[in-house]
Amino acid sequence: MQNTNKFKLRLRYFLYAAPLLFAAIMGVGMLSSCSDSEKDSDEFADWKAKNTKYWNELYNTTKQKIANGDTSWKLILSYSYEGQEKDNGMKSYSPENYIIVHELEHGTGSGCPLYTDSVLVHYQGRLIPSSTYTAGLMF
Question: Residue 45: exposed, middle, or buried by beta-carbon count in 10 A (0-12, 13-18, 19+)?
Fold first, then answer.
């Protein structure tokens, strides 16, 4: 009888102490992860202007390569702008309306594709160079 009373007492003590111990451990963990001083990273400050400048430079470089006769580079107008004319009747578009394509290998173009045919396509994205990623992060 005395053993069961001791067991009940220990169980009651554990049931009261366990939540308090858990709360104390979580509180220490949460408070230790906070910092009073925040370091602001200027790496991505003014990102929109940097992105526009970088894209315009890339667009102009690609346009120059095409003008010099390099057929591996292409400027493809976004499908939503094809055939549209501006108010003055001209068909000139800003660099943001184009997709820059570098064709690494040109196929033979023999025959028509069948439903069961397949292709291998490799897309590569790259973030503009920054202090952390000097060559630009590839994804």
Answer: exposed
| Three-state SS sequence of 56-84 | HHHHHHHHHHHHCCCCCEEEEECHHHCCC
Residue listed under structure tokens 């292709």: 119
107 in helix, strand or coil?
coil
CB 98 within 8 A of CB 77: yes
Span 71-118, pLDDT tens digits? 999 999 888 877 777 676 667 788 888 999 998 888 787 778 788 988
Nearest to 51 by CA among 125, 123, 102, 127: 127
Q: Would the pTM of this model clear 0.85, i.e. be above it?
A: no
Euclidean distance between CA atoms 7 and 1, whole angstroms: 10
